[in-house]
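Phosphotransferase enzyme family protein structure dump, as promised
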Amino acid sequence: MHKDILLFIQSITKAGIPASLQEGIINDQAIHCYYRNNPDGSIRWVWPACSRKPCFLKFYHTAGFRAWLFSITVKIAAWLGCLRYLAHGSFHFFTHKELDEPDAVLRNVQWAWFSGTTGPDRKSILYMTHADNEQGTFIKTALTARAKRNLATEYQQLQAFHAMHFTSVQLPGVAFTGSNCYLEDIGQHARRTNRFSKLPAAAVQQWLQTHLQHMPYGATDFAAAIENNLQKLACGEDERIPASLLKKLVLLHEGIQQDGLLPVTAAHGDFTPWNVMFKKDKLLMIDWEQSKNSMPFLFDLFHFVYQSNILVGNRGYRAIRAELDALQEMPEWKGLIRESGCDFATLEKYYLLYQISHYMQVYRMQQYWHIQVLWLLQTWNEALGWHLCRNKEVAARKLLLQELQDMLSDYRYALLKWRYQALDSLPENADADICISKAGCNDLLIQLKRHPLVTVMQVQRKSFMCQVAMVLTDGSLLHLDLIHAFKRKHLQFMNASRVLLYAQVNEYGLKVPAVADDFMYTWLFYWLNKASVPLHYRKHFEDKRNASGGKITWLLQHKYLLPVQDFTQVFEYNAAWEKDVHLLLHTKHYNLGVSMLLNQVYYIWDTLQHLFPRRGFVITFSGVDGAGKTTVIENTRELISKQLRRKVVVLRHRPSLLPILSAWKHGRQKAEQLSVERLPRQGSNHNRLSSLLRFVYYYTDYLLGQWYVQWKYIDRGYVVLYDRYYFDFINDSKRSNIQLPPSLMQLGYRLLLKPRLNFFLYADENLISSRKRELEPETIRALTGSYLHLFRQLEAASGKALYVPLENIVLANTLHIVFRYIKMMHHEKVD
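structure tokens r here:
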């Protein structure tokens, strides 16, 4: 503590109080002091041992339950004369003997000292108040050249603003002596809050509109400051600053609006819960060192919301976004924002550009960072990503993967089977398998869950891994497998700790397993699932084989005792070899004794947890022949299977619990073949009774079959895709050789379970005629009109089911809309 105590002596000496650590001829009167530390062990507050008034609380922000509880505890301890029990230590210093007189400075006052925040702007603060007077004084002492300039700025700004005679804003009295700034304590009986909406709105608006004017972006001081800061950031390097943050900052700057007029005002610059108070309808502000006269409109609003959510509890950008969205919808702020003539999100971007670029310079000059700097960097990174995604400058999935690469750098991890470049190069339909410790997995899940780009996150936990599915703000998907033990059922096949220990950093800055470890994991994973290694992994490992220096082949021959002659032969599944490998793994220490028993218990537990899978749902696709249903259904099936990882079954027209009628005559296989060969709508049945009997037969299939489909597929987690559905009986019964009124058919729909998602695909009749020449344009037009009318009717009467008509012209656009609805349905089920 000697260094911190010496700082205390130097700063109070600068404040005009003679002090020394050593007793001398002049400084011979001892003052006994207590101190309390910062979390890093350095001294934070100092106060005299004789004090029964906790003046150091003047430096403490008491908004919030924990802060309030600490404040109450301190006040009770002071009243009881027990403040020494809250101290982390004590020391003596010596002062002038004349200060021992009745009117002496340190004997006749209550005081406390704050060591200040480390960094290039550091200053210490001495608070002093006479015992019989509540009105106190803060003496700020500059400890750096920058801090001295800041104190001069504070004095000049306060002098200027005092001359404006605010009606709703109160400022402290001020005096300046070069290195010291003397400020009046205006906080007596004032209240504080961490929520911007609880400040007196009229007073805050009066302040926020101070010196309001509209200027071209290029003519503002802050625009020049941003340009200058970005140039400096581009020149220097600091490994502590995430590369993704700097990249996003440049992208955001490139996309900002630089033409037209921008609203600018004066700004406090450090408008935070600890510098802002209120008494009734008056706003009180202290600490004016960062004050500026030409800043983006609402700069102080954004600063208050950001700082209160980051530095008080590190709540992240998701909480900031929620508070900002709520503020801009409040009537008292909605009108003010509209009158400014500038978009709220644009003003926030100007704030971020200035604040981040400015403080990156400050933090680069700091050798040691406190934890709050890391909180700020993380939240700023999230905020930049949100705005870039909102502007569609970068896809949300790509942004999240970039940030995930930064997140992972804090942990021991290894990307398994990785054959791409940087993490954001992961293809759309691919997922990432990441070996990471269980503790690291839990920490990473917390970060991802609170990330503003993640709208829905589903986590399926198993004893050896977590499967994570995320829906992002633009509707894209990202899947991660976070693996902390390598198991197939109850059998462990590799040591994850060893894989992490020998992981290597590749040319893209990602940690990947050693080549031999990566191959053994991939090979065992597929073989123990009785499958051959896929072709893309074969090529990957053939290219990497030489990098292992023959270790892969040696492991196969000596560790797994396989008679490998040609390396490529291990890619094809071999049942006999797999059996030998299986037996060998059972002899490993992690599959013996207690470990074996625990593995079996975990496997049973995993099985029981997933015994009742998440329920599936039904999607129907209707439309006239030639509308493109088959292509859309096949692509949709592929997307659901690969991106949502759901089992999919495609049903044609009906549940088919009962065979088609002709199967009773020709047999099921022959009847289905004749049905395919026969052109649609060519049936010759015109008999009403025959039609009624046919309808009753097929309706029975729907009525009974729906429960069969429910039991066999929906309850087991399948997504069921119907190629046509009951809607064909209503609109196009002729296709099933039935001639009955549509109203009768529609009546039967009331007794059926309603599929949650129904699409009607249509297109121009000439386009469909070119695909299906057997249908006349007039017929296509009539059927399309009937379907659209039916879907409008059903949508109007629907509760939860959706009926969506889609013009299927460009397949990619159709699939994008279809899959967006399916993702919404899928994750609605998750929640």
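Confidence is low (pLDDT under 50) at residues 99-105.
lmk if u need the other ones
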